Automatic annotation (TrEMBL):
One Pfam family recorded for the sequence: PEP-CTERM
The name this protein goes by in its record: PEP-CTERM sorting domain-containing protein
Taxonomic source organism: Limisphaera ngatamarikiensis
Keyword terms of this UniProt record: Signal
Superkingdom of origin: Bacteria
Stretches assigned to the Ice-binding protein C-terminal domain: 203-226
Signal sequence residues: 1-26
Amino acid sequence: MKALRYVTTTAVVAGVLSLTSLRVCADQTGSVDPSLTWLGYMNVYDLVGGNSQGNYLWGSSWGVSDLPATWSGSELVLRPNTSTWNPSDPYWVTPGGQPNKWLEANFYVDMGTAWGGQTVTFSGQTVDNTLVSPYSAVAFIKEFTSSYGWVGMSTAPLSSGSPFLVSRPIGAGNVVQFGFMLTGPNADPAAVEALGQVRIAVVPEPGAAALLGLGLGLLACCRTRRG
């Protein structure tokens, strides 16, 4: 009976690990994990009427701290951009001291083509979202061709005290990015506190090593009980 129980226990643990491996192969999940390589990108648009997005102008890689996006303890904090505020430069600030550009700040992880051909899910928990109009923020999954030609994007709102989840099937060989996007006018540092922010809980994704350790731990526990 002991041999049978041992084989059964081993099979159960192996089955759990196999199912986990199969799920990871069939689907991929992104999480709000600061240990991942997070990048910044800013798209710049004309500002229309002081509160609306106009024509697209340009985009470039951007410093994460200048978006800004910051890790604060167990939270990720997103705020309106102030790094472009320069009252002496009419490109960014009107002669009357008002914002002159609409910004799309992207904070994201680029998985390259590793997740192509699979369904990708990105989920987490919004602690709070106090952004005032016209500022807004969403969680996203973006899809590009292997040469970074635009394919499309799926998004989910970031509502205070609520979980978010966005899922997208990705074409084979395509690039996947997941992360957050905050849009709105560039902001005066002296007034930014009144514009609000988004706080998102940090929830690292358990790694394969941790899952394997869990399986081995269960097996060791069963062995101990048989003794």
